[in-house]
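Hey, resending since the last one bounced:
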Amino acid sequence: MRHMKHDHWRGKKISPIPLAEGMTVTELVDNVFDGMGYNAKRLAQACHLFKTMIDENSTVCLTLAGAMSPVGMGGGIIKMMEKGFIDWIVTTGANTYHDMHFAYGFPVHQGDFTADDNELAENNVVRIYDVFIDMERTLIAQDKVVQMLAWRAKEKNKLPEKYSTAYYYKVLGEGVLETARNPELSFIASASKNDVPVFVPAFADSSVGMDMSYLPIMACAKSGSRKLSPQDFVDPSPTMDILESAAIVYHSMINDISRGVLEVGGGVPKNFLQQTAPTISQIMGMECPGENYVVQITVDRPDIGGLSGATINEGKSWGKIPKAGEGNVVPYLDATVGAPIIFAYALENCKPRKPKRFNRILPEITQKLVEAAIKNVEK
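The structure tokens again:
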């Protein structure tokens, strides 16, 4: 063989996959996927990288887009939080809303994606691809619960003038813990119990956000007024979300703690998490290199601008990762397949970690970030 400048043959030799009866998830990942190519190889790399985040005691964020909770993804998220593997979450309001159905026993069933949607509508059945949800017994019932919990929080002065969505979901999770039949089935309730902040940056774009419009209307009705006044509104502050999320990253950075993220899908949750470093660097003037480790499970394509802001390596130019081509992997897979395998691999291979409980220290670490930014402005 002629001399080659680069060693093109350092990769594992590919052989027919060694399937065996009774294989564990770890054996499937390490002995089968890791010896293959395409997205099987990428999924194995993702499992190993997620394990690295946990083993290094990185601050780990989960971003969750799409409609993952209606198909039961919440169970895996709950287990990850209980083991201390996930420290904070950024998600869509839809995932938080549908998550609560299970805690209250509201019907969510497997359905058929070929069903006649006109017939479903006539029978008050709502369809999320092949998942059926009851309009009356689930959605309307859930709206009443969310409105009740939000109003109760307002009445008890639990909603201050300015607060983040993480604070709101902490309060909402406490309500689920107190009132639901099976709160252990809700990742929102579990996050509140384990002090895991849950940010929902597109708060208005969900039924939970829609249900918040009930509060000023209810306040108006109780006061006998027919006009809304500014004090009737008690909405979460987007700026508080930006500051508190950046504070988690800044706290980890100044304490020399590596940072990792498991991105399930893309969308607003992915970009909101990845904008924390540019917020610290560009807005506050303090250097922040971005996430050390990134795993994204997606089926989006980069060539049509559909990969939710940027490919992971492209994020280097935006200051979202320290170095392109290192510490990140993107399995192009259905998230309902990839995420449970990553979760199961972590359960088999990682020791439980002490929870970071960021909800308890968010005000303190946010104040430290603000003080550091003020000093930078005053220079």
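The longest helix spans residues 135-155.

Sorry for the duplicate.
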